[in-house]
Amino acid sequence: MTRYVMPTREEILEAYEQGVEAVIALFERTIGQLGERVAALEEQKAKNSRNSSKPPSSDGLKKPAPRSLRKRSGKKSGGQPGHKGHTLEASPEPDHIEKHEVKECATCHATLAETEVQGYEKRQVFDVPPVKVEVTEHQAEIKQCPHCGQLNRAEFPAGVTEPVQYGDRIKAQGTYFNQYHHIPLDRTHQILADLYSLAPGDATLLTTNQKLAEQVTPVNEAVKQHLIETDEAVHCDETGMRVEGTLHWTHVASTERATYLESHPKRGRKAMDAIGILPKRTGPVVHDGFSSYPQYEQAIHALCNAHHLRELIFVAEHHEQTWAEGMIDLLLEIKTAVEEARQQEATELPVPQRAEFELRYDQLLIEGLQANPPPPDPPVKKRGRKKQSKPKNLIDRLQSRKRETLAFMYDFKVPFDNNLAERDLRMVKLKQKVSGCFRTQTGAETFCQIRSYISTVRKNGHNVLDALEMALSGHPFWPDFLYPQIAAPG
User: I need a surface site. Which of 6, 54, 250, 290 has the fewest CB within 10 A?
Assistant: First the structure.
């Protein structure tokens, strides 16, 4: 927002001496600048997480009234017919059976000790038995050769390197709490101590995290190569994260089955080049329109329409422009049409239907341009581009990047929005909310390696705790779609 400067006394006197027209011009210019500033402040105040890209945490105590863009389905709330549900089912082979005797009649109190049992009413309780840490002592035989006198010692199992040490399972649980659920080191130590009356210290947990990050690096590098080569749409985004007291950026590239996170001091092209996915990618890339993404011209770009919907809501509500309401309805109508076509196993929309959607899209933009004419040319002395209103900027983007906005309509492999990348980055923001920042760049890199691995594990339906233990033992989990890229999966 441009800082407003009041006319000086000298400027006012100069206009007065020049006559009425000069005074009127000074007055109009001053009022115009104040009006622009007031409008900008009103726009800024009217923005929230529902109609802009501001995070929900910025809404404060005054949460915006919800406005759902979903249409009523006509279905009753709750589970639908055919839904299996998740009811706890009785086990056919319980681990323990406790029988409770009927000792006397509840009415006459006669003894029933010798009466024959006619049947049982059964109830089952699912619970965790008391857990106790098991200590395994490894004893390596030492033998002296009777022929040459050489002392020989048996080899210890892989990973058994210290006189006393923690096993992979309990260390994996420490990483599970600390890196997956963002629980600080002290509280992670306390949780393990409460569960087992024994727990690794902070130094052991940090060392475990670093070792695990090293073990999963080959998996993440294979994921990175997959994201370069896959025909699937790759979602890209970035978010700020404080590292060593300065602002760094966590970048994400992901699909429905793979996630890759990397921390870098920069947000734009310098970081994207260093990460190395976008410079080599030629397939579809979904993003929010940040200026660095279009610079990779060899990729097929698609814009996030969730961002567009929020901006259109702001224009419709704050500026009261009907074309924005129409564009919201049109984008959602196209989205529904694409989903229905997919359900019928179609690979594209019929040409007439697509042409109709394009025509309506163009007509709505014409209405928008009529409601938001270009601003007047700036004074000769003023440099730079003409300052436009928020609605005009949005219209220009929707018009110049129409193909990228409607990419989901032209190619069914492209999603409507970039919500997948935002979900993959959400844990980074949660980490920042819990911890505040990373004290070292190494800590940030360790987090990104482990978090990438965990996200990929979850997307492929594997147990996270088991996958962490596998990685610590030197055999990390490899998704099946990466098998062609590795010689011998672990």
Answer: 6
- Looking at this protein, which amino acid is placed at residue 41? L
Judge whether residue 239 has pLDDT over 60: yes
Give the pLDDT confidence score for residue 383 in this predicted structure: 59
Tokens representing 156 are 């210890």
Output Rg (C-alpha) for the chain, integer angstroms. Answer: 32
Q: What angle do CA 396, 398, 403 make, to 5 degrees?
A: 125
367 within 8 A of 390, measured Cβ to Cβ = no
Confidence of residue 43 (pLDDT cuts 50, 70, 90): low
For Cα atoms 101, 102, 107, give the angle at the middle one, nearest 5 degrees. 170
- In a 13 Å sphere around the CA of 440, the CA atoms on its Cβ side amount to 5
The pLDDT score that the predictor gives to residue 484 is 61
Q: Are 468 and 451 in contact (CB under 8 A)?
A: no
Q: What is the pTM of this model?
A: 0.81
Write the burial class of residue 105 (CB in 10 Å: 0-12 exposed, 13-18 middle, 19+ buried): exposed
Residue 458 identity: R
Cα 134 from chain centre: 38
Return d(Cα 447, Cα 468) in angstroms, integer.
Answer: 13
| pLDDT value of position 380 | 57
pLDDT tens column, 141-191: 999 999 999 999 999 998 899 999 999 999 999 999 999 999 999 999 999
CA distance linking residue 178 with residue 184, whole number of Å = 6
Chain segment 334-374, per-residue pLDDT in tens = 999 999 999 999 999 999 999 999 999 999 999 999 999 88
